[in-house]
Amino acid sequence: MFSNRIAFSNPRPIDTDVQQPTVQPVSKRVRRSWADNLLSAINQVACYDSPIPLMDHLSQVVLEVPNYDAIFDLKFLDKLCQMQPNISKPLSRFDSFTPYRNIWSVANMFACISPNLRVNCTQLDESDIKIVRKTIDNCWKYRTPIFECRNEKCQGTCSSCRELPEECSSQIIHDLFYRLLPKNRDDSPFLVNTFLPVFTLTGYITQNIPVDVVLYDALESSIIDYSKKSKFELKGLLMDVKRDRLLAAALRDSILALLAAGLVMIVVAVHSQSLLYAFVVILLLALSVVGALGVYSLFTDEFPLLNLVTFVLLIAIGSDDAFLLKSNFPNHLNEDTFHTFLTHTSFTMFLTCFSTVVPFFINITSNVIVFRCFGLFAGVTVIFNYFMVVSFLPAFLLIQHRHLDCFSGFKFPYRSVFSHLLYVLLPHALIQGRYLLMALLSVVAIGGAAITYQGLHLPEYNPLQLFTSDNLHEWYDNNAEKNFEFVSSKIALPLTSRLVWGVEPIYSLSTFRANATSPLRSDPFFALKTASDVHKIARSLEKARQLPFVNHQPKFWPERFLDWSDKYPCARGFLCCNMSNPLFSDSYLDFCLRNSTSFLATSYNDTPIFDNQTFAFVGYTAMLPTTLKYNHRFSKLTKSFEMLEMTKPDNGWWAPEWWLMSTWFDLLSSIVQDCLSSVGGSLLFVAIFAFIQLKWQALAAVVTIAGVICTSSAIVTLLGWVLGVLEAVILVLVVGLSFDYTLHYGAALPEQGCAEHRIREATSKGVGPVTLAAFTSFLAGASMLPALTHAFYQVGVFLVVISITSWTFSTFFYLPFLSITLPRQSGDCSYCEKTNQMHLFPRR
């Protein structure tokens, strides 16, 4: 495609036997100096009078400067101008694919605006900058007329174009305001966009030009290096290479799960004073994953990247049970104490486990196949972990107690200090300050609910974030539309409706396999066998054309067929295609429909459908153009799709012409529906589990869980979360994970004694396992914060937030709340007197 000089893998030597004319050897290729010089001169000119074709689809670099005045600093412009020679090597690798050679920056634009006839930005001086600034300041107030004059409807013929000053009417001025400078001149810091002479990867793909992503890696590295060298504040890049880099980054981030496991292992070892016990806990987590993978493979061989975050969640969830078992293991071991210990802990772990599993399995009902796969894998993993913990781990503790005591014994130096703080001082503080704590946390929860209601919303600018927000490519997707005029027009692609008759829709045949779909079949209930059938489909098309948001004047083939039929001359002894003529018979219709295609033009957007093997007439399809435009915002997209639904034909179906539009709309719709159903279902199951364990104290537990949900949601909302695909999955887990610590305290609540005594005892017994479980969840989440991918980072943030809020509310809200809900006891409590004596006069 590119050259007749090809690097063969088997170089062929020149045959010495053939006769060659005698010529003087040429040691050096003679340059076609005039052609090369002309091409080089043309390439150095950055100015243009007509729009650059497909300019919006070029790769872009966004820089940040202190303010508007900074873009007129000659030193800044000189550095910006030198970007091209400094990144020329990686740029030259795209020369075979791209017709452009210049970087369109504000420096080159200023050179074109200057009346001093500068070829490019290398010739700029202070006099040019003064003139250019005066011109730009004057034209800024005409920004809106400039845009209107150059849009598709006007094309320079509107009355507003005649009112523009001559210096503001050029294409360069339009592109400077429209593409390179932000919407607001008073912004500080001030953003500056730059267009590279290289299309994005998507731009090449849509032109059927194969380009290796490695070329973009080299280009990005050179841009970053030059920005550091020139002390530029590089903010964003557009190359459309995020999806191609996701797998490598996700695998790299999954290694952070090993760091999380290591940190959890250290905490378990310190608490249990046994490295062997810590190793066994990590081993059980690994075996749970292996077992879950075996079961998961029976359902599907597809493993979405979202499933990788299950490893981190399991580390946070699975370590809780290890602390509970170790803390409740009886000091005086016999058959009765072991039976009591195992009965109590296994039932508590069952409730906490399945309160987490329920939200996972509810995801299986989702319309999004990635949610289903994640729910299946995560749910099965937690179930495997539960059965391993209630069987293998107690057996190991029993063996360790009897035969492996020699492997334990190291002491944590500050253990006694922490024990006194948690087991003695904390219960006293909870009882004395219960009303203040409840009031403060109630205010926090109510405020959190208001913040969540007002601030949590679906994505508005970046449909599918793959990397963390500080990633250069994600920054561009999150912020470009807010700052530059052209982006909203770029994504505002026209919405069209593809109308189809005679073809059955394809249905999914598997819950977890994306490619398991029904075969493409013709609709046996559709046929054009009578004149009334043709009239019916023609009326449907005419009705669709007359919709206000369509207003499509040209008739479609069925309508034109009716006009053609009315003019068809009929005579006895010949087939008659005039359906209003008495000589016409429905048996002629098939021939007439086929025959009409020889006289009536058909196309991809207006054509009958035939069977490829039998050439039978099976259906018809038409593309209906509309005035509707695509938009990422769900509220606007919903209105558009509600109107598009009005185009649905009788006995047929419709779909958007571009499948990504309908995919994004369906995804957002599923996120809203799945969140509501999953959170509601999870709350119902958690309330049932709470009542099973806590009886009538379940009301306090449900109120506490509601406080955790409101506060956690508010914190992540303040951190900038939007309700995307990943966030929808994570927020569903809030219900189950917020219940664990509350249930541990409730399970530790004694059945006898006054309210104060029971709260003190529940605090003393439960605060250790709950605090350690929260701490390990915090560590597991914190270890994910250096992640590159959005999924791992958000899971890390979620674990940090949920561990803090759940521990805070279960300890400082649920326990004080029990002082109100627990029944009163008349007289003195003998349990409290005994406990107080032990705390006030401890044995030495």
TrEMBL record:
Record domain SSD: where: 278-399
One Gene Ontology cellular component: membrane
Record's keyword terms, sorted: Glycoprotein, Membrane, Transmembrane, Transmembrane helix
GO biological process: smoothened signaling pathway
Lipid bilayer topology: Multi-pass membrane protein
Keyword Membrane: yes
Record has Glycoprotein as a keyword: yes
InterPro entries: Dispatched_Hh_regulator, HMGCR/SNAP/NPC1-like_SSD, SSD
PROSITE patterns associated with the record: SSD
Molecular function via GO: transmembrane transporter activity
Annotated TM spans: 246-270, 276-298, 305-325, 345-362, 374-400, 412-430, 435-456, 671-692, 699-722, 728-747, 767-785, 791-815
PANTHER family found in the cross-reference section: CHE-14 PROTEIN (PTHR45951:SF8), PROTEIN DISPATCHED-RELATED (PTHR45951)
Family membership noted in the UniProt record: Belongs to the dispatched family.
Protein name: SSD domain-containing protein
Taxonomic source organism: Caenorhabditis nigoni
Gene: Cni-che-14
